[in-house]
Specification:
Layout lengths: L12 H13 L12 E6 L5 H12 L3 E5 L1 H4 L3 E2 L12 E2 H11 L2 E5 L7 H6 L1 H9 L4 E3 L7 H14 L6 E6 L9 H10 L5 E5 L8 H4 L3 E3 L2 H5 L4 E5 L21 H4 L3 E3 L12 H4 L6 H22 L2
Parallel strand pairs: 1-2, 1-5, 3-4, 5-6, 7-8, 7-10, 8-9, 10-11
Helix pairs in contact: 1-7, 1-13, 2-13, 4-6, 7-8, 7-13
The structure holds phosphoric acid mono(formamide)ester.
Phosphoric acid mono(formamide)ester binds next to helix 2.
Length: 313
């Protein structure tokens, strides 16, 4: 595997999940792979889990880690070819990506959607710019439209907690005061399409995700109907895709509650706003898997880095 940019870079999800669970039992077993190798983590946006879990994963593999908060510390990058750079940008992606490639062996990048323009966000200029101009493997730590490390961690968590071969898994939209990107939901849907499950997406009308991603998925606009007999309920907010980046309405009655959860396990990628997205009682119950999900981010990242390092031995 050269890069890990999307869920489509996973050749066999069941095999990857098994391998990640094995790594979790013996995380120091592959230190030789990362010896005298460096990973650079570039953050154009904030993070808690992604930063620490990817760093921990690299340390488990014996790698050196360099971290840069590019969004606040780096030069403003230009991505267009042939631009006269007499405005706000100071450095072109062509130089930046090639310079970074000299300092490390893998570069991992976080660059969220700005939610101002769908075409610009879907062009993934940061990620594709680095993939085009860097000479080293690229790992997606959440881009405009995808969060494949989170989705792989979620697949591991589902595998560890499911009690039947084909569980019912519901992805439920939840209210949020701010406009949030679609990346987590997109990658979760793509991951669910790669495994055996009775999978349903529920959200108010107007919050349909990109139909190219949800193609073939069951969509139920009535949350109560969707949640019936669920084994896992994955809660996430996203802004409108059609009316791009807009919060259409607050829909506070879509918040996840203890009553709605029933006997299902609760999942969320974190960070989460208590008593807006989900009530305290859900997060404070044993049925909540959010801390396990965050822990599995390490082993998802470790598996991805291991596969890249093995490919470059
Ligand atoms: N879930 C997730 O990506 O968390 P952070 O934004 O804290 O990295």
């Amino acid at each position: 595997m050269k890069h890990y940019l999307s869920i489509n870079d996973i050749d066999s999800l069941p095999n990857w999940v098994d391998e990640a669970i094995a790594l979790k039992k013996s995380p120091y077993g592959f230190q030789h792979l990362g010896k005298q190798k460096t990973i650079c983590l570039l953050f154009f946006n904030n993070s808690l889990r992604t930063r620490l879990s990817t760093q921990k994963a690299a340390m488990y593999l014996g790698m050196e880690v360099m971290i840069m908060n590019f969004g606040s510390e780096g030069w403003a990058l230009e991505y267009e070819d042939g631009t006269m750079m007499n405005q706000g940008t100071s450095e072109h992606i062509k130089e930046a990506a090639r310079v970074v490639s000299q300092f490390c062996d893998i570069v991992a990048i976080r660059a969220f959607a700005k939610l101002e323009d769908k075409i610009t966000d879907e062009a993934e200029e940061v990620l594709t710019g680095f993939a085009k101009h860097a000479s080293i493997p690229i790992v997606n730590m959440e881009s405009s439209v995808a969060h494949p490390l989170q989705a792989l961690a979620d697949a591991i968590t589902l595998a560890e907690h499911k009690t039947k071969s084909k569980p019912k898994v519901v992805l439920s939209w939840a209210p949020h005061p701010k406009a949030l990107p679609h990346a987590v939901a997109n990658s979760f849907v793509q991951m669910m399409k790669k495994q055996e499950a009775d999978f349903i997406i529920t959200h108010p009308k107007g919050y349909e995700l990109n139909p190219e991603i949800t193609n073939g998925c069951q969509i139920e606009y009535d949350q109560e109907t969707a949640l019936e007999n669920a084994d896992f309920i994955y809660v996430k907010n996203w802004s409108s895709y059609e009316d791009y980046g807009q919060v259409l309405h607050q829909n506070t009655n879509w918040m996840m509650t203890e009553k709605k959860l029933g006997h299902a396990k609760f999942m969320h990628c974190l960070p989460v706003r208590r008593n807006v997205v989900v009530e305290d009682a859900v997060l404070d119950k044993n049925q909540s898997l959010v801390i396990e999900q965050a822990n599995n981010r390490t082993f998802a990242a470790q598996l991805v880095l291991k596969k890249i390092l093995e490919n470059h031995e």
